[in-house]
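Protocol step 4 of 6.
Sequence for ATP-dependent transcriptional regulator, MalT-like, LuxR family (Modestobacter italicus) entered exactly as in the expression construct, tag removed. Do not edit the line below.
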Amino acid sequence: MPHPRAGTEDPAAGAVPPGLLRVHASKTTVPELPAEFTARPALRLRLDSAGPGQIVVVSAPAGSGKTLLLADWVRDPAGPETAWVTVDADDNDPRRLWSAVLTALHALPCLSRDGRPGGARDVVPPTDGDLVDAVVAVLETCDPPVRLVLDDVQELTGQDVLRDLNRLVRRFPAGQRLVLASRSDPPTSIPRLRLEGRVHEVRADALAFTVADTGRLLSTAGLDLLPDQVAALHARTEGWVAGLRLAALALRRTDDVAAFLASFSGDERSIAEYLTGEVLGGLGAEKRDLLRLVSVCSNLAAELAAVLTGHADADRVLDQLHHETALVERTSPGHYRIHPLLRSYLVADLVRHRPEGYRNAEATAAGWWSAQVEPVHALRHAGRAGDPGLLTALLHRWGVTLLVRGELGPLQRALAAAGPGPRSTDPRLALLAAVAHLDGGDLPAALAELTNARRSWPPSPEADLSALRAGAELLATSRGLPGWDHDAPVDHDRLPAELVALLHLSRGVALLCDPGGVDVEPARDELARAVRLAHEGHLGYLEVQGLWALSSLATASGDQGGAIATAEQAVAAATRHGRHPSAWTAGPTAFLAQADLLRGEPAVAAARAAEVLVLGEGVPPEAAWTLHSVHGAARADQGDQAGGLAELRAARVEFADHPATPGMVASLALLEHQVALENGNLAAASEVARWLEARVGTTGELLLLKARTEAARGRHDAVRVTLAPLGSPRPPVLLPSTRVEAHLLEAEAALHAGERAAARAALGTALGEAEAIGGVRPLALAGPLTQELLDAWLSHDRGRFAAAVAAARAVVVQQPTVLLSERELEVLALLPSLLSAREIADEFTVSVNTVKSHIRSIYAKLGVSSRRDAVAAARDRGVLR
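Step 5 output, structure tokens:
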């Protein structure tokens, strides 16, 4: 039995802390040790020798004995109490993983109150904040120190949960012990931890059995081999623990040890294929058949095993196998796990010899999981069953549920498994696929699926099907796709609450994106209803999307403060569900990062953008575009103008073909244009202006870009002429910050003309409009003469906005725009060549002194002192390719 200080084996022990997902006790139970377990006292001492503040990492391939070593180690009565969590693939849902961790911690005796587990729940705020914060908070209360063991960490692959794990590693409280066991290096920065001296590693070479260990294992298994035979077996397996255990099982059933050892291969694949066959051959037909049928399940409940095999006593048979062989592990009473090597062999054997039995087993498992209200597992098994009818039925049953939960990956995989044929004739499947594609920004695929639904539409559709179509068509219209000319009324009373919430959200988004103009009140009403229903129904994904849409509505209404507050609510809602950062919050995070940048806080903006960008391909294209652009501009504001411009340009090239609102296009163009001018790259600035004009036509933002360029060229009279049309209704101005920048350019132009009163008036107008929108950044980037006026204003104003302006000017690095003349650009283009100054002069038929003068000017403008540095600086700025 496990040591009483190492968790609990009672599935009912301790209530689940409020706000957490319920996890079965098998996840938080220390695995039992097999009868033939071979103790490794030297390795236990090695584990004990980890220094204060070090993370213990046990990293080795499957079958190396990691789990059993740790299970034996934590049973030491002299050691600290241990919270154990066995990780599986479903723990890529961060809330599930951290719920298991918190449940395991709450069950520790040191955190119990009056002997009852869960007594420390008052120190955890799991429903109000970040679950990683909650884990850290619990650990900080543990006195004496405890151990937290996460086993099978290699199962964690999701970006969200990996980011959480890295945060836990960075913030793990001093004095407590974190142990990570994995088949490969855990997805944390091991080199960085090693450099900091914060990692204590036990790897495959240490876990490999010695010849002496091999002898003890064989002796415990009742085998009496000669020393040279033990050495031969050890050499063939290279001390691989699983191979040795498999070999011991096979050797029990052979009469010719020498022949066995002669034919035995140390290759892992050979071990799996040969020895699993040998082991199965020694079992009765009933046990072999049972194992084959249940092998379709990676984690096996005895109840499911009984259903799969028709044996009411499946639990008893599995328990016998657990005691007879180390290949069946009892993770907790009534729950088992077949060794992966054996399971893969059994599945392949079942598919090869009994394909119909394999399909039936997968279908049965799908039905069982569906009855347990676990649609992701159900659809996974149904996809493997190869039964289109079953898969279609489960998609009908669970498709909308997965949509509103935001579990689009499993839904899309199930739809792909169903194939294009069913989607072309089943409007429900086509609509589910369309909404999933719309959410991912794949508009052509969404339109194709909508076309399938329209073509296969029944004459008398069910109410929920009509509602699903209405929601899909509204969302399609909001993304600019051709609309639906049929607007049949939808009876909300006949619909499930999740579909009603989806319908309200779709209507609100369609009203928000109406090209004819936003009808604010109806849109706000629809979105507010969607958020309320989603919150009441614990539909986190819909709640986040509804709040994000409300934030966008506030922006469209000119309520910047309300937009920021609602975007923050969206992020907070996602955090409550363990989904921040994630694709759920990419949109609101991008908006908040832009607001940080506008407030003159580039470091905050860059950090906020980076926390979502690390998610990679899961980020929606329009959000990724904004995040990269904000991140690039923030880099430039912090002094890396060349790197910032490169990131801005790359983002536009990658995402420019994706749909975007005119306001979004204009805002990103303004960011890139500004940084291009700071780099002295007039060609890049002109390219952005042409691109903006092609996308949105002549707007106030296009005039602003042209005026900026004139200012960079020193043509300040032309600046005022270019900006003059902004005083009339046409052209339209898309962004409130545009007028702020225009007034600042007018102030700079007036100062160059000696019109100080006009400059003060323009600056005063800019300050008033900037304060209304929280637009500090344009002031920090204003022209040099305008900065002198700002100095005078700041010397008399001690208000909050003035303090924000002063702070932004202190952190935003303003790079003076230095443009090379046309002839200087021509000379620069020849500098990478081997031509001398005289040869360059001959190219242009000018004197060598003229060329040298141009080169000196180039050096001065680029801030360099050599030809090589000039070429490098020009390439960094994008002036030279």
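Step 6, annotate. The chain is about 60% helix and 5% strand.
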